[in-house]
Specification:
Elements: H1 5-10, E1 12-18, E2 27-32, E3 35-39, E4 55-58, H2 61-64, E5 70-74, H3 80-83, H4 86-92, E6 97-99, H5 101-113, E7 120-122, E8 129-131, E9 134-141, E10 148-155, E11 158-162, H6 180-189, E12 193-197, H7 214-223, E13 228-231, H8 237-249, E14 254-257, H9 259-270, E15 296-299, H10 309-314, E16 328-331, H11 340-352, E17 356-358, H12 373-383, E18 387-391, H13 395-407, E19 423-427, E20 430-434, E21 441-444, E22 451-452, H14 454-466, E23 468-475, E24 487-491, H15 496-515, H16 519-522, H17 525-544, E25 549-550, E26 553-556
Helix pairs in contact: 5-9, 6-12, 7-8, 15-17
The site of one zinc ion has 5 residues, from α3.
């Protein structure tokens, strides 16, 4: 299975910069004859272990170093984990961006927010486009956001078929259904490499379609005398349309609350992808009116994001909507790994307000957008690839996808397990792994304005678990003697009574240590600072078994 040197120069190279080893951050480079395509440019959502980190984007260094040869960014669909880092990818390597109408509609707003200009080119299923040595064929797939695509990419080395995020959902309306015939057609023509979504590889069977949600929503509408608040991903346009239709049948007016929800609904309506016939729309400002007492409100913030509309409602602080007894909140989304605790707290707050809360653990109010094991096998069976590259997931999902493929009859040496930064070279007679390239994560502050060093995050984590000690020491500039007893401020170490006692004790200890300094140290503020730090570190470690961060302030007057 080795590549000859002649073949290696003409081989297709797949270089994942993100998404292989984590959920999110999807970004895969395809390289052939020195020309590059970037497939998706997503973000990763930070977990509670990364205080103050707002979003995480892939390190696009590899693209930046080859910016002249990047021909295009191809977007499979409009989820944040596929389009959220587009502005950063384009900053590294400006290139035209290709995607479906809705995907580009969402992407355009993100780019405008960041003040980034880009050429956006629309992909339509069945209409191939030429990009350098590549020919890209968009294929309709069903997913939780409308207008999602798989892409069959003809390269000089062979066809790469990227599934995007998909499920089969044969019950979906024809315009939203996965185009199985075209996928089979590519199988007949020959697929060199299939890049297939691994998200739900641990789930048996087939993923149900959106229509599976109807009974649970009907039940909630029937028994709720007040308002129904529905929180789903703001990109779940098909679900919004489905639920709004049920609300209209139940005689309920409909409103949208939260910036993303309002923006996305507007984008989808403009494109004719969100149809609300017979639906009475209310503006958020009129949700307090008598006529709105039975409204159904789509609210953003299903992940418990602290500043979202739903979190604000849960705190009882939303300007337009005070939820309470008689109202039902439906969380129509699963918690993204890492968000579980935040979502759990959110649910408790809503119950405390007197609301009823229905969520995926208590009723069928959410279906996944990702294919389960049987869907994945079906895609393999139809496309019959020479190689399978499991993408999109933590390593355990990628590895299980490899096993699933083996059970389905694909020889083990034809599954290529890779992680971010690996380089897979694939030619007609074999595949090999080449030397790894730079790949990693860039952590961004609020609003993506600045990068945060890993060190900063480490500091924040340290502060949150160990606390902080700030001793304030005032010295006489002439003599180097203490002007007054040191003051010690601590936070987050022990409870306040004990902290006070400890601080006093530490103050006495410091006074002794400072008075006892050797002469040559007395006029050196830097050495004094270090001594103070060492003394206090030792003291707090001994007395509290913690290692607080000690930040001495030494002033000379
Ligand atoms: Zn998706
Ligand atoms: Zn995804």
């Amino acid at each position: 299975m080795e590549l000859s040197p002649a073949e290696a120069t003409k081989a297709l190279r797949l270089i994942p910069l993100g998404g292989l080893g984590e959920f999110g951050l999807n970004a895969m480079v395809l390289e052939c004859e020195g020309e590059l395509l970037l497939l998706d440019a997503g973000v990763l959502f930070p977990t509670a272990e990364m205080p103050g980190v707002d979003s995480i984007v892939p390190d696009f260094e590899y693209l930046a170093e080859r910016r002249e040869r990047v021909r295009a960014v191809l977007l499979t669909h409009g989820h944040e984990d596929h389009i959220g880092s587009l502005a950063y990818a384009l900053a590294a390597a400006p290139a035209p961006v290709y995607g479906s109408r809705l995907t580009l509609g969402f992407a355009r707003r993100r780019l405008q927010e960041r003040g980034v200009k880009a050429e956006l080119r629309t992909l339509r299923p069945g209409e191939p486009v030429e990009i350098g040595p590549f020919r890209v064929h968009p294929i309709r797939v069903a997913h939780s956001v409308l207008d999602s695509l798989a892409l069959a990419i003809e390269t000089p080395a062979g066809v790469v078929l990227a599934s995007g995020d998909f499920k089969l959902d044969p019950q979906a309306p024809p315009a939203e259904r996965t185009d199985l015939e075209t996928l089979s057609h590519w199988g007949d023509r020959g697929v060199l490499a299939l890049l297939s979504d691994s998200t739900n590889v641990e789930v048996a069977g087939v993923t149900p379609g959106e229509d599976a949600l109807v009974p649970a929503f009907e039940e909630v509408l029937a028994r709720t005398r007040g308002r129904v608040l529905v929180s789903c991903f703001a990109t779940s346009i098909a679900r919004i349309e489905l639920v709004a239709g049920l609300a209209a049948r139940d005689g309920r007016p409909v409103a949208f609350l939260g910036r993303r929800m309002v923006d996305n609904a507007e984008t989808a309506q403009d494109l004719g992808l969100l149809r609300l016939p017979g639906v009475t729309r209310l503006l958020p400002g009129s949700l307090g009116d008598a006529g709105a007492s039975r409204a159904l409100v789509f609210v953003s913030g299903s992940q418990g994001e602290p500043l979202s509309a739903l979190s604000t409602v849960a705190l009882g602080e939303h300007r337009d909507l005070a939820a309470g007894p008689g109202d039902t909140v439906v969380l129509s989304a699963r918690a993204i790994p890492g968000n579980e605790r935040g979502v759990s707290r959110l649910i408790s707050k809503l119950f405390r307000l007197g609301c009823d809360v229905v969520h995926p653990a208590t009723a069928l109010v959410h279906v996944s957008g990702h294919g389960s094991r049987d869907d994945l096998v079906e895609l393999l069976r139809r496309t019959r690839p020479r190689y399978l590259v499991p993408v999109h997931g933590e390593y355990r999902m990628l590895a299980q996808h490899a096993r699933l493929a083996a059970q389905a009859g694909l020889p083990a040496d034809r599954v290529l397990l890779a992680e971010d930064g690996d380089v897979l070279a694939i030619g007609p007679s074999g595949a090999r792994r080449e030397e790894r390239v730079a790949a990693g994560r860039v952590l961004l502050d609020r609003g993506g304005a600045s990068e945060i060093e890993d060190l900063v995050v480490r500091d924040r984590r340290h502060l949150s678990s160990e606390g902080i000690v700030v001793p304030i020491v005032v010295l006489d500039r002439q003599t180097g003697q203490l002007e007054s007893p040191p003051e010690i401020v601590t936070r987050g170490i022990v409870d306040s009574d004990e902290a006070q006692q400890l601080a006093e004790e530490a103050g006495r200890l410091l006074t002794g240590a400072i008075d006892a300094r050797p002469v040559e140290e007395r006029l050196d503020a830097e050495l004094t600072r270090e001594r103070v730090r060492d003394e206090l570190r030792r003291f707090y470690k001994r007395r509290t078994q913690r290692r607080p961060m000690v930040i001495p302030v030494v002033m000379e007057v």
